[in-house]
Amino acid sequence: MQEIVNVRIDDRLIHGQVAAVWSQYTKATRIMVVDDQVVHDVVNKEALKMACPQQCKLSILTAEKAAANLCAGKYDGEKVFIVAKNPKTIRSILDHGFVMDSVNVGNMGGKQNTRMLKKAVSVSEEDIENFLYLAGHGVKVTARMVPTEEAADFIKLIEEAK
Question: Can you give the residue ranges of the PTS EIIB type-4 domain (predicted)?
Answer without folding.
Answer: 1-162
